[in-house]
Amino acid sequence: MRTIKLGTSDLDVPVVAVGCMRIDSLDSAQAQAFVGASVDAGATFFDHADIYGKGRCEEIFADAVQALGLRRDQMLLQSKCGIRQDVQTFDFSKAHILASVDGILKRLKTDYLDVLLLHRPDTLVEPEEVAAAFDELEAAGKVRHFGVSNQHPYQMELLKKYVRQPLVANQLQLGIMHTGMIDSGINVNMTNPPSVDHDGGILDYCRLNDVTIQPWSPFQFGFFEGVFLDNPKFPELNAEIDRVAGTHGVSNTTIAIAWLLRHPARMQPVTGTMNIERLRDCAKAAEVTMSREDWYGIYRAAGNKLP
Q1: Model confidence pLDDT, tens digit, residues 98-128
Q2: 58: closest CA among 75, 30, 79, 83?
Q3: Residues with Cβ within 8 Å of residue 276, at least 6 apart in sequence
Q4: Does residue 257 contact residue 203 with C-beta atoms inside 8 Å?
């Protein structure tokens, strides 16, 4: 699969990442088949979080890797920490970050993470503690690269004041039906609802600072309300996606990912499907180059008006 540099790092990563949030819905044989198909498709960057399945997702993934006999150097592993479901808080304290990483490594049966992301902002963050945790993790060889998830520019700048390591990625919700960070940039100097900037200019910030955006839930509309593909609620959008898919001889799934990859921000979408055929369709997006006209055609068909 085509690769990009992850942020300012020297890490070459596949342009499509495999999200493992739902791998606990698979039995052992299904998990092995899914992980094996991912590797065969060149989708060797796997995204986890310590809260997915309350840790079971990492364990199931590790068992599948072991059963398949895959080597550690055949894959790139990313996980996230900072959400404490047990007490319903966010926690970027040094103690919690260190303990979380130890738990992640144990569950994934690995000595190190290629990437660790801080999972959603902790308003009680003390960035000096984050910096101390990152230094300790890097020195111990437990984490090689660091990033964030769902953070706006000033939250990242606050961390950067103290953290020595580059923040190489920011995982953000983005897809054809969740385009707020794109809308506000298109509607600059307007007073219509799409002009409201809810994200602090994060899209342009990441481009300016060479931070890789990792779009999560790219097929969802709203906040986990459902998928937009083949959804009768969105006939115009699906008709346009199907038209573009037909011109390229690919599926609508492929086009939904290719739409994100067409953006010059050089994003790395994170899939969420556990269906092997859909995963393969996602991977095929790396081979599709969408025209400017088709990109805007899909954007307009999603209900967006150009000023």
Answers
A1: 999 999 999 999 999 999 999 999 999 999 9
A2: 79
A3: 33, 34, 37
A4: no
DSSP state of 256: H
- pLDDT class of 143 with cuts at 50, 70, 90: very high
Q: Give the rounded percent of residues in the chain with a pLDDT score beyond 70.
A: 100
Tokens of 99: 């303990």
Residues 261-265, mean pLDDT to the nearest whole number = 98
For residue 46, the model assigns a pLDDT of 98
Average pLDDT, the chain: 97
pTM of the shown model: 0.96
Confidence of residue 299 (pLDDT cuts 50, 70, 90): very high
Cα separation, 181 vs 206, whole angstroms: 11
Dihedral, CA of residue 204, residue 168, residue 126 and residue 51, to nearest 10: 110
Catalytic-residue membership of 52: yes
Three-state secondary structure of 272-306: CCCCHHHHHHHHHHHHCCCCHHHHHHHHHHCCCCC
CA atoms within 13 A on the CB side of 8: 11
Of residues 71, 9, 8, 23, the one with CA closest to residue 44: 71
Q: What are phi and psi of 264, to 5 degrees?
A: -70, 0
**Which residue among 52, 112, 162, 205 is the active-site one?**
52
Does residue 225 surpass a pLDDT of 90? no
Alpha helices (runs of H) in the chain, residue ranges in sequence order: 28-40, 56-68, 94-108, 127-139, 153-160, 180-186, 202-208, 235-248, 252-261, 276-284, 292-301
Angle (CA) 31 33 35, round 5°: 65
* Pairing, β 89-90 against β 220-221: unpaired
